[in-house]
Design brief:
mainly alpha, rod-shaped
Amino acid sequence: MVMWIVIAVVVLALIILVAAVLSVLGRLPALERAGRKLDRRQQEALKLQRRAAVLERSAAGVQERAEIMQERLAMIRPGHPLNGKHSL
């Protein structure tokens, strides 16, 4: 009698284990798709990061050129001591 109870418990445990394994195996394709999607997003993020770095360097160059132009304009303005005119 005890032997049948032990066998029933073992069989029930095996059935629960198989159900759990099948549930996990059923979710693997969705997990694989999610993993591929994450990989694509990571690649896109790296591309955007590289583009942002290029844009940042370009903006720094424009800022530097603007500062140079402001300095040149200041030297050209009337009344500047270097251009020989007086501010009066």
